[in-house]
Description:
This is Cytochrome c oxidase assembly protein CtaG. It is found in: Cell inner membrane. It comes from Halopseudomonas formosensis. This protein is an alpha+beta fold. Helix content is 25%, strand content 34%. The strands form two sheets. It has a five-stranded mixed sheet, with helices on one face. Strands 2-4-8-6 form a four-stranded antiparallel sheet, with no helix packed on it.
Amino acid sequence: MHDEGLSTGKLVKRLLLLVVGMFAFGFLLVPIYDVMCQAFGINGKTAGSAWQGSAQSVDLQREVRVQFLASNAEGMRWRFGPQDEEILMHPGETRTVHFLAHNPTDRVMVAQAIPSVAPSRAAAYFHKTECFCFTQQVLQPGESVEMPVRFIVDPALPKDVRRLTLAYTLFDVTERMAPSLGLTAMHSN
């Protein structure tokens, strides 16, 4: 009987250690993810607000190809994509491109676009001065919209980077945003 109580105490300690370990792992997951993305050159984050820098001198001696991608997160029913799949530009040049979105549903929907730049080391040199990703987008049933992105590729971009990819993932945030926008909560069809 005494041995059984001792083994129960050990089991409780091990289970508590397991719970603490799981909590620590959950807490450290975001920093670990950021380090892994940086190490493998994926998921370059861009600023979440408009760039406030000064005018750049245009580097006419080189060109950078910028590719545009769009995808919908699970449950997002909008049609969403870039008007142009890629452009060729000079670093320091200000360019505007458009993404097209259409809400084919029979309900008001709210979306949030999350950008990323690849390779990730180029994200620090990609400056958005205007972007639909800075705010939520509200579309009425059947509504279509052209959403601009105005940006500059910094002339300080490393010379070996000749291609950038700006990718957006569109998320349905209708349920979360409905109360603050005065919409009645609607469930996905």
